[in-house]
Design goal:
It is a single chain. By secondary structure, this protein is α/β, with parallel strands linked by helices. It has 6 helices and 5 strands; from the N terminus they run E-H-H-E-H-E-H-E-H-H-E. Helix 4 (72-79) links the parallel strand 3 (59-62) and strand 4 (87-90). Strands 2-1-3-4-5 form a 5-stranded parallel beta sheet. It has one domain (16-63, 72-130). It starts with a strand and ends in an 8-residue tail after the last strand.
Length: 138
């Protein structure tokens, strides 16, 4: 998983605090940031998404705008198809930072999605908002 929002450290702490770190570690799931991969902070969304897909990473990001041909929304619209990894989008960054129950639910939902992906569960949507994700199934 790669993260393009400043909340990845807090997310890692939450996953540890709710006892899910060892489960994710068993599946070799780890969290990486721009800095871990020497990516420029101003990398456009399309390039970041392609980088994540090429490396088998799920992108975790704040809700992005739909401005321009390289926006995340435009990229998902013209490039994503079943079989590619989804983007996990933090539904409400303010609540994630302020409300511990909301933050823990977000961490739990992210862990559930990542574990499902690692276990081979098929996904049928390009973007999953967390918390409160609902995976589409045929």
């Amino acid at each position: 998983m790669a993260a393009s929002c400043p909340s990845v450290g807090y997310l890692q702490f939450l996953i540890e605090s709710i006892g899910l770190r060892s489960i994710l570690a068993e599946e070799a799931i780890r969290f990486e940031t721009f800095a871990d991969n020497d990516l420029p902070r101003d990398l456009d969304d399309r390039s970041l998404w392609r980088f994540c897909q090429a490396n088998g990473w799920v992108l975790f990001t704040n809700d992005k705008n739909n401005d321009g041909p390289d926006s995340l929304q435009a990229t998902l619209h013209d490039s994503w198809h079943v079989g590619l990894l989804p983007v996990l989008t933090l539904a409400n960054q303010g609540r994630f930072r302020r409300e511990l129950p909301y933050a823990r639910q977000t961490a739990s939902d992210i862990a559930e999605v990542l574990y499902g992906i690692a276990s081979g569960e098929p996904l049928y949507r390009p973007r999953i908002f967390v918390p409160g994700h609902h995976l589409d199934r045929p």
